[in-house]
Amino acid sequence: LRPLYDAIGLRWGAGLRAARSMVLLEGISDLLYLRAFGRVLAPGADLPLLPTRGDATCDLMARYLIGQGVGVRFLLDTGDVAKRLRREWNLSEGHLRLVPVAPGFEGQFRTSGIEDLFSPTDFRMLAQRAEIPLGSDKKPNSQLIPDRAKRLLAQYALEHCSELETLLSQETLDRFRAMVEFCRSEDWFHY
Questions:
Q1: How far is CA 25 from CA 79, 151, 186, in A?
Q2: Percent over 90 (pLDDT), the chain
Q3: What is the DSSP code (8-state) at residue 20?
Q4: Alpha carbon 86 to chain centroid distance?
Q5: Helical (H) or strand (E) element with 129
Q6: What residues have CB less than 8 Å from 27, skipping those under 6 apart?
Q7: What is the CA radius of gyration of the chain?
Q8: What are phi and psi of 89, to 5 degrees?
Q9: Which among 27, 8, 4, 183 has a CA at the least distance from the CA of 97?
């Protein structure tokens, strides 16, 4: 349980203290990108992020955290699990934010990934700098990159976050800014 305790901010010291709230993410690449853009767009802000092992485990993690008195919010890819969570938990926009399907692909794809927040040009440039090959141009960013390489590209973005603001378009920065602001909001869900 040590990684879980570390992620929710449980610390040993003068006494036990835990984070009051957490934003549940689908995975480690979401965490890495949001940390990178948080450093650039909200310097000094402590984003309370907790990656789970895919969208299907967000529900279980949220129940555990709420049982411990921790407020939660969800930042998830568009998909069936997010729809189910919204319906079953009666979540508002303030408690569940979805990464939208990439512009231009709304009618063709039902799912998204955090990579779809990048403009196609910015995503290709970042992948090229990280020396990660991408697939066809006829797909959203999240579909261009093999799953095994997603974490590597996110790690690259975190390691080079000081360059992001000058390298990336305003379009990409604005999309990530909206997600960072969601993570910084004080509107928490308690069951």
A1: 14, 14, 17
A2: 56
A3: S
A4: 17
A5: helix 120-129
A6: 51, 52, 53, 54
A7: 17
A8: -95, -5
A9: 183
Please check the confidence at residue 166 and state whether its pLDDT lies above 60. yes
C-alpha 38 chain-centroid distance: 11
Please report the pLDDT score of residue 8 as a whole number.
Answer: 60
Q: Determine contact, residues 59/175, Cβ cutoff 8 Å.
A: no
DSSP characters for 25-39?
Answer: ESSHHHHHHHHHHHH
Enter the tokens of residue 118: 């990048």
SS3 content of the chain, % helix, strand, coil (to 5): 50, 10, 40
Mean pLDDT of 86-102: 89
* pLDDT(36) > 90: yes
Whole-angstrom distance, CA of residue 69 vs CA of residue 79? 28
Given a contact cutoff of 8 angstroms between Cβ atoms, the answer to whether 179 and 55 are in contact is no
What is the identity of the amino acid at 69?
G
Supply 109's token pair.
Answer: 């794809």
User: Which SS3 state, helix, strand or coil, does residue 141 take?
Assistant: helix
